[in-house]
Amino acid sequence: MNKIFVGIDNGLSGGITAIDENQNIIKKWVMPVIKVKKTEYDINEIINIFKYIKQLNKQTYVALEHAHVRPISGKRACFMTGLGYGIMQALIGAFSFSYEIINPKQWQKNIFQGINTGDTKKDSILFCKRKWPEEDWTKTERSKKAHDGLTDSACLSEFSYRVNR
Questions:
Q1: Radius of gyration of the chain from Cα atoms?
Q2: Strand 3-9 relative to strand 59-65: parallel, antiparallel, unpaired?
């Protein structure tokens, strides 16, 4: 059975990326959210992403970024961080994917070798633009800047590839 490697940056502005055994991007998604009064996770759409990955019928390895609450974050930000982290763990388990929880410093040290702008978001974008130059890293067609949630998730999928191939 072939393998796929999925990286999840589980923040509200995060992303999900799946790569194959040749490190080609299968598909990438900006974290699905809905705007009610405030931005919230679109759980139904996240489930659809996991269904898509499951129907590929390949051995799936997921690298989920460990969620950290920063002391400067407000109550809502802290709650949403924990909520997103819990949603992802629950869905990964429900779909029976193999997974590991990865500390950001761990994957960044591995992936960013030779890159050091002093800003991990810029490092992530730079790595992805070099590794997958043909990919569009913007959130929408109208966006001009790369979306660091997408690039972080791609870096996590690359980390999973390096650890689990």
A1: 15
A2: parallel
| Domain encompassing residue 99 | 3-164
Q: What is the pLDDT of residues 36-49, one digit of tens each?
A: 889 999 999 999 99
List the one residue out of 70, 60, 71, 65 whose CA is nearest residue 84. 65
9: CATH: 3.30.420.10
Reported pTM: 0.94
Asked if residue 8 lies in contact with residue 65, where contact means CB atoms within 8 angstroms, the answer is yes
Phi, psi for residue 144 in degrees, rounded to 5: -105, -25
**What tokens does 4 get?**
């796929």
Q: How many domains does the chain contain in total?
A: 1
Rounded (10°) CA dihedral 73, 74, 80, 81: 20
Unique residue bearing structure tokens 């999840």: 8
- In tens, the pLDDT along 83-142 reads 999 999 999 999 999 999 999 999 999 999 999 889 999 999 999 999 999 999 999 999
